[in-house]
Amino acid sequence: MIATQACILVWRLSAQQTEEAQAARQFLVRLSGRQMKASRLVTPSALLAGAFILFAILDSLDHSSIPELRAFANSILLANGGDG
Fold it and tell me: Where do the TM regions start and end (predicted)?
């Protein structure tokens, strides 16, 4: 059922022709991390991937503060040899 709702969300967002919808599509594609062809700037799979990441971010923000999330990120980076 959740997958169906996500597909409907992407379908509706794809069909909308407003500037706000275009900005939302670009934002979700950016979140997805997918490289898009110049001839096809948005795909439904990129929108789904971006929406999944957006919902994960929002859920994280509901459970942890931004400083806590930054501390988690720093500890993960440092544990993996990054410079934080």
Answer: 39-58
